[in-house]
Amino acid sequence: MLESRARTRSGGVAEAMRSKIVLSLAAGHSQAQTSRTVGCSVNTVRLWKERFVGERLGGLYGRHRGRSRSKESVRLEAKVLRLAPTQTG
Length: 89
Known about the structure:
Elements: H1 2-7, H2 13-26, H3 31-38, H4 42-55, H5 71-83
């Protein structure tokens, strides 16, 4: 799912960047290397890493500081995960 979000042309640029950050870190790259590759600050990499670790996909949604996820976004995420094909292997 993150791979398709990172390559998307129909989604937002910020969403693709967040996905690229997570994929780069998952591939074993450092935060500094990821920031150079993606073209953002190390603080940005750290922010999205922490959100992904703490909230998984739900953490990659943009939001203003201090604003919690809406109940609707939680329901939407659950529906997407339920309908998404599972990967085996």
